[in-house]
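Supplementary Methods. Inverse-folding protocol.

Structures were first reduced to a discrete structure-token string of length 329. This string, shown here, constituted the complete conditioning input.
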């Protein structure tokens, strides 16, 4: 059986896996999404708007809204991009002096009014931001969230030990996950995310998408929390955006060679299954900088790069960073 799946393993194979497979996403695993096409589409969208070319589209949507004459209402509401959905990074803008809470967390608001939060995979149809103004008034701003359909992948006939790790391995895995979680606690004022994101590898064939529910030997596993790109071992892996390396570990049980990049405001990229790391914890990286080489380390079914993206511990969909927020469903 080629498809080995643990708590968080993922898919490098470009062809259908063995076993029964149900797919509901618009982006099937076998769909080829060349790097250039994604980039070109992104640039075109920027050009059509005619503003802030080179910025990430979510940001440009926001800024376009800010530039419109109706952007600042008398209520001084928060400015948010339209058509938000599960798994999405949200970049908003707040009037001066506003304090915002979401999901029990006080959001950082930059000097420029920028704030961010992430909508989790299974967020309800409506979420709320608690907003407190400098004059002491407060209210809840309600936000509609579009529900998504996720893949369901049913894999049968796997060795049971790969589905249920032995107690000692499970303990190590929990310790590693705790380390990664701890590395994602930083909430820095850097706004590296505002310059936009790029795919970490060129000529990427998408072999796994965000949110897929994995059912191995009939046992539901954690949903797939990132974007898999099938590339040969040894392919250069680029930083999706600038940031600071918070963790660089060559050999973790589930994720193998792992690099975690802090883009500021609690936003993190994880590049995993790498065969070689060219950065270390504490390094500053530029957008597009090579941080190592791809591989099949950890629990991977074949050579690929997994790009995970999160707001603190809330796992988000990297694919949504690459296309306009107002053109998604
Ligand atoms: Zn993956």
């Amino acid at each position: 059986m080629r498809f080995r799946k643990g708590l968080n393993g993922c898919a490098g194979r470009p062809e259908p896996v063995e076993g029964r497979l149900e797919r509901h996403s618009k982006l099937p695993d076998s769909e080829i999404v060349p790097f250039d096409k994604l980039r070109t589409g992104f640039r075109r969208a920027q050009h059509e708007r005619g503003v802030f070319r080179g910025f990430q589209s979510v940001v440009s949507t926001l800024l376009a809204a800010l530039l419109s004459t109706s952007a600042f209402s008398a209520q001084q509401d928060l400015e948010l991009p339209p058509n938000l959905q599960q798994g999405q990074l949200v970049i908003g803008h707040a009037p001066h002096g506003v304090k915002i809470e979401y999901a029990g967390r006080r959001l950082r608001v930059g000097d420029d009014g920028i704030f961010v939060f992430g909508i989790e995979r299974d967020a309800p149809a409506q979420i709320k931001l608690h907003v407190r103004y400098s004059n002491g008034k407060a209210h809840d701003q309600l936000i509609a969230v579009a529900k998504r359909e996720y893949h369901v992948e049913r894999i049968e006939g796997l060795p049971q030990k790969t589905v249920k790790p032995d107690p000692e391995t499970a303990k190590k895995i929990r310790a590693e996950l705790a380390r990664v979680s701890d590395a994602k606690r930083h909430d820095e004022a850097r706004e590296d995310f505002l310059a936009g994101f790029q795919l970490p590898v060129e000529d990427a064939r998408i072999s796994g998408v965000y949110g897929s529910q994995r059912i191995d030997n009939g046992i539901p596993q954690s949903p797939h929390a990132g974007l898999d790109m099938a590339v040969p071992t040894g392919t250069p892996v680029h930083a999706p955006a600038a940031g600071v390396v918070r963790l660089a570990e060559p050999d973790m049980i589930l994720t193998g060679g792992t690099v975690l990049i802090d883009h500021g405001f609690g936003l993190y990229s994880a590049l995993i299954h790498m065969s070689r790391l060219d950065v270390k914890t504490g390094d500053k990286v530029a957008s597009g900088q090579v941080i190592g080489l791809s591989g099949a380390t950890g629990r991977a079914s074949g050579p690929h790069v997994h790009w995970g993206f999160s707001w603190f511990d809330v796992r988000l969909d990297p694919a949504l960073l690459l296309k306009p927020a107002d053109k998604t469903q």
